[in-house]
Each structure stands twice: as structure tokens, then as C-alpha cells.
Design brief:
- By secondary structure, the protein is an alpha+beta fold.
- It has two domains: 144 residues, Aminopeptidase (3-Layer(aba) Sandwich); 102 residues, Aminopeptidase (3-Layer(aba) Sandwich), CATH 3.40.630.30.
- The chain has nine helices and nine strands.
- It has a five-stranded mixed beta sheet. It has a four-stranded antiparallel beta sheet with strand order 6-7-8-9.
- Helix 1 packs across helix 2.
């Protein structure tokens, strides 16, 4: 640590810090162009997540009364499709405090804790680290590249204006389209695990972790749609969540998407699920 950072106070993220954490996170979202905005209550939920221990898995750096950097690390409860433990870490440093080694220090602490936690949770299994690389040319991308990280996968985020033109529903027989309720929680979890069984970077979601997502304050079940087969199983789903004011995110998938791709006559289940969900946009 350089002389310019010796006065800083290191702590762990706690519930009484979420307002300052949200302020820093949202500042970084604007400065770095990620648009990953959070409210304090959302971050408080993160601290209470299944299998997460803030006292050992987070770090907070303070300059007096101002939070200037944070970091956190998480290890999945299940192994991925290659039998590996996934160690995920993220964090951020206030723009005024970059270039002084805080980011490297946070990653080093997350790495050491991640190795320890992966060994405890998945003894003998290989593990790998992953972190969001943000935008091309960003400070985070440069730091991670310097530390030996390489780009593994790009993701495209699609947007649709709300309100927007109604989607024309597909003509699909043999399915019932319903609004999910808590009785569907386990069925959607099983559908999700089946849909992503061979998806890159994915691992099965446990009932405990899934419940965190299902019951989160950002989840909007009344504005989501399930397609149920004749036996009542979830054949497709569109789950809607709302994050910070008018920023809405959509998550969807289809059970056994490979089989649906081979049978185009059934692929309309997904589009009809979206069409059933999109008109219900007054949740904003």
C-alpha cells in the first residue's frame, strides 16, 4: 500500500453501509457506462443471500466517512457442466482513487478467499475465476487483463422500449399460458436447470439459491408468464424483474431448447410467452 492510501480504513460490507454502497455502485455505473444500477434494498438482499458470509466474503474501503472501494467473492453451490467450481468476484473503485493499487488489492483478497471457499465447498474439484470485464477499454478490463484474465465470452443485451408495440402471439396448441405464483417456484427451477444443463458457464440452481431469486424484491411475478404442458410441467417461461426505477430486465428460456429447435412447430411457445407478457407493462 502506498503512502497515499495508508490512512484508509478496511472493513467488510454490512447492512448499515448499503446506502453508501449503493451511491458508489451507481456512480460507477454512470462513470464506467455499465448502467448496472442498484437500490440500497437490493444490495441489502445480496448480503443476506444463501451461502454468502459478508464478514469473510466482502471488503469495504473507507476514506473517512466516504466509501471509495468495495469487493466481494462468491462460490456456487454446484459444479458447472465440466465439473468445476465457479468462483465469481466483482467490485469497484471510486474514479478519484484509481491507479493506487486498491483494485489489485481487492482482487488479491477475493482470489485468496475464493480458493479457500471453493476448497471447502467442493473438496478436490477444480475451480476457475470469473469476473465481468465491463466495456472495452475500461479500467476494470485493463486491471483484469494485467492480472492474467482473458475474455472468455461476450454477451449481447437486447432492449425493447416500454411501452412498445404489442407482439403478435403465435398460434400454439397444447399449452396453457398462466401468470406464475409461488406454487410454480419449484417447477420453474427445474425448467431452468433443464434449459441450461449444457449452457456455457451454467450450473444447476439449488432450491435455496433459486428461492433467493424467486422471492427477491425486484421480481415481478404478476408480469411474468409460464407455458404449461398438458401434464402441468413448465415448458417455457418469461420472468420479469424491475431494477431501479424504470430499468426493467427480462429473463427467459425454454425447457429442452435443443428439441424445440429441431421441431420448429413448437418454437412458438417462447414467442407466445413473450407476447403474453409484453402487454402487461404497467408495472413500471
Amino acid at each position: 500500500m502506498t503512502a497515499t492510501t495508508t490512512h484508509l480504513h478496511w472493513d467488510h460490507l454490512r447492512a448499515d453501509m448499503v446506502e453508501q454502497w449503493a451511491d458508489l455502485t451507481n456512480l460507477l455505473a454512470r462513470v464506467d457506462g455499465t448502467e448496472e444500477f442498484f437500490e440500497a434494498a437490493d444490495l441489502a438482499e445480496e448480503l443476506r443471500g444463501t451461502g454468502f458470509t459478508p464478514e469473510t466474503d466482502t471488503w469495504a474501503v473507507w476514506d473517512g466517512e466516504r466509501l471509495i472501494a468495495y469487493g466481494q467473492v462468491r462460490v456456487g453451490d454446484t459444479l458447472d457442466e465440466q465439473g468445476r467450481a465457479r468462483v465469481s468476484h466483482d467490485g469497484g473503485v471510486h474514479p478519484d482513487w484509481r491507479g493506487r493499487g486498491l483494485g489489485r488489492d481487492l482482487v488479491a483478497r477475493a482470489t485468496a478467499r475464493g480458493v479457500e471457499l471453493a476448497g471447502q465447498r467442493h473438496p478436490g474439484a477444480p475451480h476457475f475465476f470469473r469476473s465481468g470485464g465491463e466495456l472495452e477499454g475500461s479500467d476494470a478490463r485493463r486491471l483484469l487483463t494485467h492480472l492474467g484474465y482473458t475474455v472468455a465470452r461476450y454477451f449481447n443485451e437486447l432492449e425493447r422500449p416500454l411501452p412498445g408495440a404489442d407482439l403478435a402471439p403465435s398460434d400454439v396448441d397444447g399449452f396453457t399460458f398462466v401468470t406464475p405464483n409461488d406454487e410454480h417456484e419449484e417447477g420453474v427451477r427445474l425448467a431452468h436447470n433443464a434449459a441450461f444443463a449444457d449452457h456455457w458457464g451454467s450450473a444447476p440452481s439449488t432450491p435455496e439459491r433459486w428461492h433467493d431469486l424467486w422471492s427477491s424484491r425486484s421480481q415481478r411475478l404478476p408480469f411474468s408468464t409460464l407455458a404449461l404442458g398438458e401434464n402441468g410441467d413448465v415448458a417455457a417461461y418469461v420472468m420479469t424483474s424491475q431494477c431501479v426505477d424504470v430499468i426493467a430486465k427480462w429473463r427467459s428460456s425454454v425447457v429442452d431448447w435443443w428439441r424445440l429447435r429441431l421441431n420448429p412447430g413448437r418454437s412458438g411457445v417462447t414467442s407466445k410467452s413473450f407476447a403474453s407478457t409484453a402487454p402487461r407493462r404497467d408495472f413500471l
